[in-house]
């Protein structure tokens, strides 16, 4: 216990608990103020300014069901972000809890390092091979998307070593891409604020510009012309470094954390053409796009290209337990399998409980036809309602997205594509209005993001859209724009 706990005078010392149930009941009886004081005293949150968070206090989320969350004050909140883009099957699915419980009793842990395996990881791999596009038949497991992208780097370098092309070392990614927050993930990503705090980086990673039409297109380029020009930056970068030195290109099919940026249809076919022409592996980071988000099982199918590696996490288990994976195209898998040791692994690679939960999760997505429903019904409805509701809105510049993911661009002058000078502040104002209106909608700079659970129904979509409208109207009003 740190000295800081003593400063918080109104926190009662914990009583010894008679049993686990009593301890749990005691925990749930804490007041919001007590939770906040203890949280402030002992918990450092990810991606947060702890000084200011501790002064304002966090919202304490205590339970969830379907697409709704409840906080410790009893407020019911609609979750427009599926947690952090991950709770694809919604909260409270007993099938997943049962799978974990059963697996914990049967075999809570065993490793897969030393000539051993176990049923859950075998079943999961077979089902992933069935659900993924035809050339993806092999999967390597880890615990997160970040570790997935670290694994991607290991596979990429091993692949080129097996081909005798040892000079192929550079990996090209994009500014404002997000690939996680390990050192490799953070270096691959193009988030300036993360790079600034991290002077030590992984070598041989370089960035090209993102296909962000609203924010970065100049002159009279159409979205298609702009996307093509941005894709051709890859070719220029390859020629600059030398194709013999470039191992891979990695990108999210659509940028998630970067603001739900959907490139025009010309982008990915051109990226694929360039990768093939110069013999460079193409990696799709499907951590958000995978498992139904766009209405296809994988977002690269939505954009019509064929990567060599796919990074998976988030929706793989719907966030119920941590798990990540990398899917290998047959031609990459063959090289890895037939060329000796692959020197990479994590204690929890293919963890039996995580694998059992992932398996139960994927069966729900498949058997309840959740992805098909997003594609043919709820996703179409969500996109239509957003576009209709915000057509000609005074501060909405564009709506991007497909299926059940959308980015709403806040803009000073939508028609002129003029952004706010203090866009991040405007996003925060809007986010706070959403929060107060019991809607979780995330702000990334001046873009508002939605990515609800894939099981959402039309009434619940209406609720999200109308709450978003109230918050965005209030934002415009506060800025004096109408
Ligand atoms: C969230 C995310 C990651 C990182 O996943 P973690 O599980 O947080 O490590 C990587 N790539 C993309 C595209 C993501 O959205």
Automatic annotation (TrEMBL):
<comment type="similarity">
    <text>Belongs to the class-III pyridoxal-phosphate-dependent aminotransferase family.</text>
</comment>
<dbReference type="GO" id="GO:0008483">
    <property type="term" value="F:transaminase activity"/>
</dbReference>
<dbReference type="InterPro" id="IPR015422">
    <property type="entry name" value="PyrdxlP-dep_Trfase_small"/>
</dbReference>
<keyword id="KW-0663">Pyridoxal phosphate</keyword>
<keyword id="KW-0032">Aminotransferase</keyword>
<dbReference type="InterPro" id="IPR015421">
    <property type="entry name" value="PyrdxlP-dep_Trfase_major"/>
</dbReference>
<dbReference type="InterPro" id="IPR049704">
    <property type="entry name" value="Aminotrans_3_PPA_site"/>
</dbReference>
<keyword id="KW-0808">Transferase</keyword>
<protein>
    <submittedName>
        <fullName>Aspartate aminotransferase family protein</fullName>
    </submittedName>
</protein>
<dbReference type="Pfam" id="PF00202">
    <property type="entry name" value="Aminotran_3"/>
</dbReference>
<dbReference type="InterPro" id="IPR005814">
    <property type="entry name" value="Aminotrans_3"/>
</dbReference>
<dbReference type="InterPro" id="IPR015424">
    <property type="entry name" value="PyrdxlP-dep_Trfase"/>
</dbReference>
């Amino acid at each position: 216990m740190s000295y800081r706990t003593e400063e918080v005078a109104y926190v009662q010392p914990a009583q010894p608990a008679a049993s686990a149930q009593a301890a749990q009941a005691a925990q749930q009886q804490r007041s919001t103020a007590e939770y906040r004081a203890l949280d402030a005293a002992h918990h450092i949150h990810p991606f947060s300014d702890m000084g200011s968070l501790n002064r304002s206090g966090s919202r304490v989320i205590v339970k969830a069901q379907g697409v709704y969350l409840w906080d410790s004050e009893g407020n019911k909140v609609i979750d427009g972000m599926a947690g952090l883009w991950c709770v694809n099957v919604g909260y409270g699915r007993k099938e997943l809890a049962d799978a974990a419980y059963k697996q914990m009793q049967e075999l809570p842990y065993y490793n897969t390092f030393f000539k051993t395996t176990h049923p859950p990881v075998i079943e999961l791999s077979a089902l992933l091979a069935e659900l993924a596009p035809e050339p993806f038949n092999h999967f390597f497991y880890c615990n997160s998307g970040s570790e997935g992208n670290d694994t991607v780097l290991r596979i990429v370098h091993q692949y080129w070593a097996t081909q005798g092309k040892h000079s192929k070392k550079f990996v090209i990614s994009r500014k404002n891409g997000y690939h996680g927050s390990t050192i490799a993930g953070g270096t691959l990503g193009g988030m300036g604020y993360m790079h600034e705090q991290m002077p030590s980086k992984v070598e041989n990673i370089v960035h090209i510009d993102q296909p962000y039409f609203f924010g970065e297109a100049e002159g009279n380029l159409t979205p298609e012309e702009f996307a093509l020009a941005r894709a051709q930056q890859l070719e220029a970068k390859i020629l600059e470094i030398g194709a013999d030195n470039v191992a891979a290109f990695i990108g999210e099919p659509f940028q998630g954390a970067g603001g739900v940026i959907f490139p025009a249809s010309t982008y990915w076919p051109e990226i694929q053409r360039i990768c093939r022409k110069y013999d460079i592996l193409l990696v799709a980071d499907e951590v958000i796009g995978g498992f139904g988000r766009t209405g296809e099982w994988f977002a690269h199918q939505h954009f019509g290209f064929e990567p060599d590696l796919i990074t998976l996490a988030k929706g793989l288990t719907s966030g119920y337990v941590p798990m990540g994976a990398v899917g290998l195209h047959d031609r990459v898998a063959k090289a890895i399998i037939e060329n000796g040791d692959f020197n990479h692994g994590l204690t929890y690679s293919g963890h039996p409980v995580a694998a059992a939960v992932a398996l139960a999760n994927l069966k729900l997505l498949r058997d309840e036809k959740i992805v098909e429903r997003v594609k043919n019904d709820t996703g179409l409805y969500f996109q239509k309602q957003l576009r209709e509701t915000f057509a000609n809105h005074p501060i909405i510049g564009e709506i991007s997205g497909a299926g059940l993911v959308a980015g709403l661009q806040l803009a000073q002058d939508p028609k002129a594509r003029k952004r706010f000078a203090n866009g991040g502040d405007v996003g925060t104002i809007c986010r706070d209005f959403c929060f107060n209106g019991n809607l979780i909608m995330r702000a990334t700079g001046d873009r508002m993001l939605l990515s609800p659970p894939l099981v959402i129904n039309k009434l619940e979509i209406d609720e999200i859209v109308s709450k978003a409208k109230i918050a965005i109207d209030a934002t415009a009003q506060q800025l004096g724009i109408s």
